[in-house]
Design brief:
The complex is a heterodimer. Chain A is an alpha/beta fold. Chain A has two domains: 239 residues, 3-Layer(aba) Sandwich (Rossmann fold), CATH 3.40.50.300; 118 residues, Rossmann fold (3-Layer(aba) Sandwich), CATH 3.40.50. The longest helix of chain A is centred in the middle third of the chain and has 18 residues. Chain B is globular, with a radius of gyration of 20 Å. Chain B has 13 helices and no strands. In chain B, 78% of the residues lie in helices and 0% in strands. The model of chain B has no long low-confidence stretch (mean pLDDT 87). By secondary structure, chain B is mainly α. The chains are: A alpha/beta, B mainly alpha. Chains A and B meet through α2 and β6 of A and α8 and α9 of B.
Chain lengths: 375, 342
């Protein structure tokens, strides 16, 4: 990867008129890198992007692009270096996708907008790389949102940009189109050594696609770094003021809020098939305990997020009497006990499952999942 | 595919051109006095015997028909530019009150200069109309800054038009002077009384505006996708917007200066052209609007002169009869499309 700085923002302030939305922001963008801005709604992510795209005037500070002041570029010059995908666009009607994409050549064509053979080749190439060739003659107004984003990406590529600015490029798209779009984007950024800077609301996707993340909140860029450095669970909770629910850094997914109160169910689980049960209980607003889980179990994140209490053992460590006694206490407290593992799985090295279910049975608390949810 | 499309475009342009030529001749031949085509040709050859016929053709009907054609093209183009500016297909010089603003200033100028009719030439009229158009445009722009709703903007424009018309009526009533007896007819819209001097003036201005528009064609294309996209491909949006306002106001003002306010041409013609050509490409829409607007006004002026002959109707009556239904159909169609998409 080319580590040369492409855009350098030195303590810039962005906003509208006198109103500073994000101040004293310093940020360096590298070639061949995707940098994603994350943060709560209204934090100023889009304002920052629009200022970089020169849609909004900068309030203070300097931005240099390839070592030159961003503001010193002529319109046409900047259009040859920087392309944008913004959320709000007008629907012109009666315009084909090809015509939309060809607009990306405007910074290069003559006053009449004549497309030369090489312009056409670049357009073809861009359509191919974004997979929109079969849409060329379709009317832009009549394609789906997902297709439209890809057409706009093709249009941006026609500008042969060094920098690509994308404002929430996958909002409103279904999951298939989200993945498709970001996969294409990632491939293009690496192939063409483009600097991409974007905003995303999808934390799970941001954590996966971004080379670096910048967190924007309270008028500041609070953190910049790789997703692994920046996006730890506790900071994400703080960044988004998650009062309810929780965020898991590893999976990049969220869980709903834990139900408190007296435990009504004890869930005995172990191989990753407990998560669905935890969520089903949460949806029914039932407080529950869970165990006995090794800390590397797939059920651990959801259990920690949703269960009142979780009995955990270290990875690969055997279950001891201590944990069994804790589990028995939880069974005593609960009204029902369910085990997500079937009879054949309740054997060595998980004999404790059988023991505990027998213990529950003696109290008449053993239930199947169906019995529990159809009461 | 592309080539087939160009063939369709060329065909339609040629058809429109032929129809304009035909309508020019019909407009010259037919009227209160019917002049046979042979006689008209003789007049153009300078071999006509009847001096009355010669005067009717050369001093009345020919300049009037040319003016109707040029002003029609100008109006349609003004409408197209305003629609581009506001991203609103029902924007037009008449409906946004710009024509009425121009009318007001022309009326005021006429009354003020009534004692000194010698100062009263084409350029004074155009200047006054342009001032009025810019004033009305300024008000529309102020409204547009606050509201972003298409319908509200149009209603505001209509209201601005009413205010200007009301003030014009007051001015005309108070100035019931025999010298400006023409003013009343003019203020309701008519192509009558056009002189060769007028034709020259409006040719110059229309040609200048068309050149400016053609230069802007590429930017218009980019602007259709929205301001931010236009600027992202290198359009200087600020300059472009100012130019759009100036050119569309100048075109509307020129039309109003000579023919008074003419309704619906600015909305109906660009829409019809877009529908027929099925494109939003300015390189095709601009010539389409010029030819289509010219033809539309030639037909409407012909009907205005002949339908209730010897009484002449004002031009807006006829353009409204044909133009307003087009606008209604367009609105219904858009609504339906929106429902299908939702």
């Amino acid at each position: 990867m080319n580590e040369q700085a492409s855009i350098r923002c030195e303590s810039i302030s962005v906003g509208y008129g006198d109103h500073v939305v994000v101040g004293e922001a310093t940020l360096v963008l590298h070639r061949g890198e995707i940098l994603t801005l994350i943060g709560p709604n209204g934090a100023g992510k889009s304002t920052l992007l629009k200022t970089l795209a020169r849609v909004l005037p900068m309030l203070a500070g300097t931005v240099t692009l390839s070592g030159r002041d961003l503001m010193s570029y002529k319109n046409r010059e900047i259009a040859q270096k920087m392309a944008v995908l913004l959320t709000q666009g007008k629907d012109p009607g009666m315009i084909t996708c090809r015509e939309v994409i060809e607009m990306g050549r405007f910074p290069y064509t003559n006053m009449a907008g004549t497309m030369t053979a090489s312009d056409r080749k670049i357009v073809e190439e861009a359509m191919e790389q974004t997979g929109v060739k079969e849409l060329a003659q379709r009317e832009y107004a009549q394609i789906s949102d997902g297709q439209r984003q890809r057409v706009l990406l093709a249009r941006a590529l026609c500008q042969q940009p060094e920098i690509l600015i994308l404002d929430e490029p996958v909002s409103y798209l279904d999951i298939r189109y989200k993945l498709e779009f970001l996969t294409t984007l990632q491939r293009l950024v690496k192939q063409r050594n483009i600097t991409a800077v974007m905003t995303l609301h999808e934390l799970d996707l941001a954590a996966r696609i971004s080379d670096r993340i910048a967190c924007v909140k309270n008028g500041k860029i609070q953190r910049v770094g790789t997703p692994e450095e920046v996006m730890d669970s506790s900071y994400m909770v703080e960044l988004f003021d998650l009062q309810e629910g929780s965020y898991d850094a590893v999976s990049g997914s969220v869980e709903m809020e834990k139900i408190h109160g007296k435990s009504r169910v004890f869930v005995l689980c172990g191989t990753g098939n407990g998560t669905g049960i935890f969520r089903a209980l949460q949806r029914r607003q039932i407080a529950f305990d869970a165990g006995i889980l090794q800390q590397n179990d797939r059920d651990i994140p959801a259990a920690r997020a949703l269960a009142r209490k979780v009995i955990e053992v270290r990875p690969f460590a055997p279950v001891t009497e201590e944990e069994i006694r804790q589990a028995e206490n939880m069974i005593d407290e609960a009204d029902s006990v369910i085990c997500t593992l079937d009879e054949t799985e309740r054997e060595h090295p998980a004999e404790h499952l059988k023991e505990l279910m027998d213990y529950a049975d003696r109290q008449g608390k053993q239930k199947t999942v169906e019995e529990l949810f159809h009461e | 595919m592309e080539r087939g499309f160009n063939r369709k475009f060329n065909g339609i342009m040629m058809l429109l051109g032929a129809m304009i030529l035909g309508m020019l001749l019909i407009n010259i031949c037919i009227g209160n006095v019917r002049i046979p085509l042979r006689e008209v040709i003789a007049v153009f050859h300078g071999t006509a015997s009847d001096p009355v016929n010669r005067d009717i053709v050369l001093q009345l009907r020919f300049p009037r028909a040319l003016a109707a054609m040029l002003l029609g093209g100008g109006l349609a183009l003004a409408g197209y530019l305003l629609q581009t500016y506001f991203h609103n297909p029902i924007a037009g010089p008449y409906i946004l009150g710009i024509s009425s603003g121009a009318k007001l200033m022309v009326a005021v100028t006429m009354v003020v200069l009534a004692d000194n009719l010698r100062a009263f030439n084409s350029m004074t009229m155009i200047a006054a109309a342009f001032l009025g158009a810019m004033m009305a445009m300024g008000m529309v722009l102020l409204v547009a800054r606050v509201v972003h709703n298409m319908a509200v903007l149009v209603v505001a424009g209509v209201m601005i038009g009413y205010i200007c018309s009301a003030i014009t009526e007051i001015v005309v009533t108070f100035a019931a002077d025999s010298d400006i007896v023409n003013l009343h007819n003019w203020s309701r819209g008519s192509f009558s009384g056009i002189t060769w001097n007028n034709v020259l003036a409006l040719t110059v201005i229309t040609v200048l505006c068309v050149i400016a528009t053609v230069i802007m064609a590429k930017s218009i294309n980019a602007y259709q996708m929205g301001e931010q996209y236009a600027s992202s491909v290198g359009v200087n949006v600020k300059v472009f917007r100012v130019l759009l306002v100036l050119v569309s106001s100048l075109l509307s003002a020129t039309v109003t200066a000579f023919a008074g306010p003419v309704s619906f041409v600015g909305i109906a013609v660009p829409h019809l052209i877009r529908t027929v050509l099925h494109t939003a490409d300015p390189k095709k829409i601009i010539p389409g609007c010029l030819l289509g607007g010219g033809l539309f006004c030639l037909v409407c002026d012909f009907l205005a002169r002949t339908m209730l002959s010897p009484t002449e109707m004002n031009i807006s009556t006829v353009t409204a009869i044909f133009g307003a239904p087009v606008v209604i159909v367009m609105l219904l169609r858009r609504q339906k499309e929106r429902e299908v998409h939702a």
